[in-house]
Specification:
This protein has 575 residues and is of the alpha/beta class. It contains 23 helices and 20 strands. It starts with 5 loop residues before the first strand and ends with a helix.
Length: 575
């Protein structure tokens, strides 16, 4: 490839985990070159994480199994190297940044690998400053890593693997816990490091549209442990492989197809800002966005939650900083609401207050007309189910089936009802075949599904889901979301999504409640919020590709987004 040397070489490579019946990777032939930025796509179980673990040495040194074929990193066979040797060449930034921290300060965490190498302090300190500056965290060297925002944690984790000999960097779902704007900053940073440092970058990410915010050299699509495509982003977007293998299409690609445009005639397809649209395609898009979608508005019931001038601070006292300040809004039975805003805006705190885990310093929260201060957490839990963002904070049982049954048994329900409800929910969340597995044996995304299942089994009237799509591939995400939408449409359940995923908000909610700097700054329809420049800026959101498309063809972004939402739902109903 343009004379560049190969740094990762798979040749007829196969891997079979010791604890599994069948191989996970089959006939992998892949060469990645120095300085390339490669995106690896695939549904859960496709083998992409296993592929990455082979590169960084976790396989076979931490996860035992049988290897056939060859894998070379920097011209050295990995099975002949130690994991320490590989760790000096390959750095990995985990999806869960908290699991990667070892130091009590940002500076200590960045210095950890150098301390293990016995690098003298006089030599180490300038490197800590160099790496922290490279990721924009030089002003936080004395800060506690766990007190940082999600985006800042990602930066610290990245700085910790920027060794002088580290020429390969792997990012495992770097956008999973970030608000949209922080996600763009992260992708910018990854791109900058890839281009300036001549490092090879491998990104594992479900969110294709967000990952393509900056260009990649190649996209590797995996399915069932095999590479099914090794191509460019442009070629992938023009074909049918995304839908065939369960990867979510970018919004603007779906809009072009809905409008009847021939995408094979459009140049610059991998970036909505560089699309070259003919007059005919512009005409088709305008006709599509200006047509009327025939769909009935949701029928809503009585008020079920009322947040009335709520203020809250975790620290008491006159100088305490408010996490929420004078927040007021109401929720009606049967609504689907997106609670959105940047990291640290107070979204999760608001959910904890509604559920009674914490109580307001001022103001009142009413649950079905009753002040929730007069209700116990258990009484509130009968009406409101809360699925936390971090599954490790919810799971208490060792076996998946036992975890899903736990709350049902605490309610002292009959044995047959517990088993029936748990089994139905496990099947819905595609966990039934794993029901007897240890929780620790499944991925972070699968743990998320376990926590969703444990709450859905309780059948609460209101379900609050904190970042339900984080760590989920599109197929599993749609299975859970379709089930939740069915609960809403057929049984009138009220759904509140705390989310950074604008696809989820656009396609599955009717209203957005937006927080910024502890205050409520918008409470409107989703399409109004996502076309409001001021709200987008203040809440760390980003313009959707539909917004960019609307500007390109000269129509109102609000009208464009509204029609896409209605049309998408109409298509889903017809299917």
């Amino acid at each position: 490839m343009n004379g560049k040397k190969p740094v990762i070489q798979f040749n007829d490579f196969n891997f079979h985990y010791k604890i599994q019946n069948k191989p996970t990777l089959h006939d992998i032939n892949l060469t990645i070159y120095e300085g390339e930025k490669v995106l690896i796509l695939g549904a859960s179980g496709s083998g992409k994480s296993t592929l990455a673990n082979c590169i960084n040495g976790l396989i076979p040194f931490s996860f035992e199994g049988n290897i056939t074929g060859s894998l070379k990193v920097n011209d050295q066979e990995t099975r002949d190297m130690s994991i320490y040797k590989l760790s000096t060449m390959v750095g990995t930034v985990l999806q869960d940044s908290d699991a990667q921290f070892v130091g009590l300060s940002v500076g200590e965490d960045i210095a950890f690998a150098m301390e293990n190498d016995n690098i003298p302090r006089a030599e180490m300190l300038p490197k800590v400053l160099q790496y922290s500056t490279e990721v924009g965290m030089e002003d936080y060297l004395l800060s506690l890593p766990f007190n940082l925002s999600g985006g800042q944690k990602q930066k610290v984790a990245l700085a910790g693997v920027l060794g002088d000999s580290m020429n390969i960097l792997i990012f495992d779902e770097p956008l999973a816990s970030l608000d949209p704007y922080s996600g763009t900053v992260t992708i910018d940073l990854i791109d900058q490091i890839a281009r300036n440092g001549n490092r090879t970058v491998v990104i594992i990410e479900h969110r294709l549209e967000d990952a393509l915010y900056r260009p990649v050299d190649r996209v590797i699509l995996m399915d069932k442990g095999r590479i099914v495509a090794d191509t460019t982003a442009d070629a992938l977007l023009r074909g049918d492989l995304l839908r065939e293998y369960g990867i979510r299409e970018p919004l603007y690609i779906s809009a072009l197809k809905y409008a009847g445009c021939d995408i094979n005639t459009i140049q610059g397809l991998d970036d909505p800002s560089t699309l070259e649209l003919s007059d005919e395609n512009k005409k088709k898009l305008r006709a599509f966005f200006e047509s009327q979608a025939d769909i009935q508005p949701p029928v809503l019931g009585e008020e079920t939650i009322n947040v009335d001038n709520v203020t809250f601070s975790y620290i008491k006292g006159t100088k305490a900083k408010n996490v929420l300040k004078d927040v007021s809004f109401s929720v009606k039975k049967g609504e689907r609401i997106a609670l959105i805003g940047k990291n640290g805006a107070g979204k999760t705190t608001l959910a904890r207050l509604i559920c009674g885990i914490d109580r307001p310093n001022a103001g009142i929260i009413y649950i079905n007309g009753e002040n929730n201060k007069a209700l116990s957490v258990r009484e509130i839990g009968e009406e409101i189910g809360y699925v936390m963002q971090n599954p490790n904070q919810m799971i208490v049982k060792d076996i998946i089936k036992d975890e899903v049954e736990l709350a049902l048994r605490l309610k002292k329900l009959p044995d047959d009802e517990v088993i029936n409800r748990a089994e139905n929910t496990l099947k819905t969340c595609e966990l039934y075949r794993m029901r007897n597995w240890p929780v620790d044996a499944v991925s972070y995304g699968q743990k998320k599904r376990v926590t969703v299942a444990s709450i859905l089994a309780l059948e609460p009237e209101v379900i609050i889901l904190d970042e339900p799509t984080a760590g989920q591939d599109y197929r599993h995400y749609m299975e859970i979301i379709n089930f939740i939408n069915k609960l809403n449409a057929e049984f009138g359940k009220t759904i509140i999504f705390i989310t950074h995923d604008m696809h989820l908000a656009i396609e599955n909610t009717d209203r957005a409640v937006v927080l910024s700097e502890s205050e409520l700054i918008a409470d409107e329809s989703v399409f109004s919020v996502l076309s409001d420049d001021d709200v987008i800026t203040r809440a760390n959101l980003k313009q959707t590709s539909l917004y960019i498309l609307a500007k390109k063809i000269g129509i109102s972004p609000e009208k464009c987004i509204e029609h896409y939402i209605l049309y998408e739902r109409m298509v889903r109903v017809d299917e």
